[in-house]
Amino acid sequence: MKPIILTIVLTSIALAQPPATKSGAPKARPRPASTGRLSAANPALLKAKAPDVFKAGFTTTKGDFVIEVHRDWAPNGADRFYNMVKSGFFTEVYFFRVVPKFMVQFGISGTPKVAAAWEKANIQDDPQKESNKRGNVTFAQAGRPNTRASQLFINFADNTFLDKQNFPPFGTVISGMDVVDQIYSGYGEMSVMGGRGPDPGRIESEGNAYLVKNFPKLDKINTAKILPADAPAK
Predict the structure, then answer these.
(1) DSSP string spanning 75-141?
(2) Rounded to whole angstroms, how far apart are CA atoms 225 and 227?
(3) Of residues 65, 67, 70, the one with CA closest to residue 53
(4) What pLDDT is recorded for position 28?
(5) Hey, how many other C-beta atoms are within 10 angstroms of the C-beta on 124?
(6) CA distance 27 to 46
(7) Nearest to residue 200, comparing CAs of 26, 21, 19?
(8) φ, ψ for residue 41, nearest 5 deg
């Protein structure tokens, strides 16, 4: 399996375990996910350079939030996120791993065919410049160099222990963190981590149908888009 996010261990890759008081570090599953759109199904073509600073607005089943990205924090991560948003990758993508006081992970496409297209779409690592503080957004990876692909997580708390595990944030939530805090967490940790939550591998192979049937209370992203440069935070 492939990258799952730091936000997790994903069905596939394992990262160093967090302190005993935390859940396992987000892992990225060896097999990334995509959305069902044609452009998102061709990650090799998604190579645009992101603006130095930009905002992305997310509409979800819990409400809206805005992420502000700073390319100088993590250039490769910022470019990947920018292209994912512009391609429509996040449409109908679920928050599949939600661990209170730790993080919320997402980024596995609900369309298996598209997910398969991202299997080897990894990006190069970025230097660790910013810390995994509350609200900061980071790509998950598989515990090996250069394995970031499509899974990400938003930190619920100051998870500074992740800073030494190669998890460089590329942006931060500047509006709607109260919405992020409300994302459904009742299923807890992923099944591959000993919890009752979804199995990332099954999301990749069975798509959103698996989540709808077995985890009906999960929240999801309805749409995501790049906002105008002068758009207000909200």
Answers:
(1) HHHHHHHHHHHHHTTTTTEEEEEEETTTEEEE---S-HHHHHHTTT--B------S---TTEEEE--
(2) 6
(3) 70
(4) 62
(5) 10
(6) 23
(7) 26
(8) -85, 0
Q: CA nearest 168: which of 57, 89, 71?
A: 71
3-state secondary structure of 203: helix
> What pLDDT does 234 receive?
65
pTM: 0.86
Vertex 120: Cα angle to 209 and 156 (nearest 5): 60
- Secondary structure of residue 52 in the 3-state scheme: coil
For residue 72, the tally of other CB atoms under 10 A from its CB is: 11
Amino acid at 45: L
d(CA 176, CA 152): 17
| Per-residue pLDDT tens digits of the chain, which is 234 residues long | 444 444 333 333 333 334 444 456 676 654 433 333 447 999 999 999 999 999 999 999 999 999 999 999 999 999 999 999 999 999 999 999 999 999 999 999 999 998 888 777 999 999 999 999 999 999 999 999 999 999 999 999 999 999 999 999 999 999 999 999 999 999 999 999 889 999 999 999 999 999 999 999 999 999 999 999 887 766
- The amino acid occupying position 210 is Y
Quote the CA–CA distance of 76 and 74 in Å, as a whole number.
6
Question: What is the 8-class DSSP label of residue 7?
Answer: S
Largest CA distance in the chain: 45
> Residue type for 19, please?
P
